[in-house]
Amino acid sequence: MLRSLLILAILIPGLAAALTSRFMGLLLYLWFALFRPMEWMGWDISALRPSLLVGLALILPSLLTGVFPYLAHPVSIGSILFLISGLLGQLNAPAPSIGWAWIDYLVRLLLVCLLAITIVSDSWKFKITLAVVAGSLGFHAAKAGLVSLLGGGVRFFDGLAGAYADNNGYAVAMAMVAPLLYVAGQNLDNRWLRRGFMVAAPLTILAVISTFSRGGFLAVATATVTFVLVQRRRLPALLLVGVLSDPVGMFIVSQEGYLDRLRTVRTFEETNEESALSRLHFWRVATNIALANPLGIGFFNYEAAYDRYDTSFGAYGFNRSVHSSHFQVLAETGFFGLVVFESLLLYACLCAFRIRRRGMQEGIPPEDARLFQTAGNAFLASITAFTVGGAFVAMALNDLTWITFALLAALDRISAHVCAEADEKTKRSTSSPVLAYVPPPATSWRPVSRPEAV
After folding, report:
1. Considering only CA atoms, which of 288, 333, 397 is closest in space to residue 91?
2. What is the radius of gyration, based on Cα positions, of the chain?
3. Mutual angle of helices 22-35 and 123-150, in 10-degree steps
4. Coil, strand or helix: which one is 158?
5. Per-residue confidence at 374, pLDDT binned at 50, 70, 90?
6. Is residue 454 scored above 70 in pLDDT?
7. pTM of the predicted model, to two decimals?
8. Are 398 and 166 in contact, with CB atoms under 8 Å apart?
9. How many CB atoms lie within 10 A of CB 453?
10. Which of 4, 180, 198, 272 is the most buried (most CB within 10 A)?
11. Where residue 443 falls among pLDDT bands split at 50, 70, 90?
12. Contact at 8 Å (CB) between 177 and 160?
């Protein structure tokens, strides 16, 4: 009851605010997409089509007021090319209706992401957007971590919904959002919000552990290593990780059977661990599909095509998932789509490094310098988490990854503008003439005649 009232208290005023502010419309959409209030509230209001209403409240006013998707950024171009690869794969789809449904989903997601690059136009808007993105998913993650901690090691077998419905996808998403929670806390002005986001980050890591997902563990481990390595002051970062490692280690030990499960990451071939061995087979099937269909077979059509290309003749079941975002892209969008997708991941890392470097430029405001450096570090850790963790779960079309691409493109534009303004100020200050004291011209001295007395 209280949950439903809380959601309605956000949703109804949010829809009203979206009609007058494109930025508020974007925040409402991002919150709805990542928080997933429909699965959290007690009332079923799906008949009202709230997701459609939220999307229309952003898109229609934007287009009517001249706020259009930003298409000039390399991330925008890559996103459009990836959509084209999905359309090409649809030509060979064994289940066309499934492919068209996901194309419709991706079109709407990319439209919002490209609008976000336009709307998030300054540092303040970026901080608020980042806090909404991280906090929407981070709320569930931190709550799960807290429940598991207080419960002495509660295990989560399920996730949220959508791309995070199972424990593996949920674990990878939480590993991706943990660094974003931390950087949001670093840049918020409100003291209590800052502390809340900072505490939510380690709780999210505990939630990843509580899923017993090996892919999630690898994702959070590589994200942590990346986060430490990219810090300018690595010693404080190492000390922070060292301080947190003891309680996290004790929590891992309290999870009965978790260490035994992690050992199978390295020894699954010796122990004949079926779930890990089956993944290798699914990836070989994805490769065979791509070789037979170089343009792919359409979004989420791997399961429909699996039985046709299964060389084990059902040894691992029928209509199975590919269990890898990278092999998912290979099978469903072909070699062209794979090149585009991996290029997007690589460019996102380069973009994060560029933003981070701009934060070291002299002359920019200190709060912008801190934002650029910390956000660049966090995005690198988040992308690493997806690249590694996503290798074990099919979630190439998950919202968080594409929203991360959009946030990176927006911050790339913002940081370039801030640095250009700083350069312009520096040029004006150095090129302006210096006014020096110029003495009056010298005149010849002549004695002043005294007036004669009358």
Report:
1. 333
2. 27
3. 20
4. strand
5. very high
6. no
7. 0.88
8. no
9. 4
10. 180
11. very low
12. no
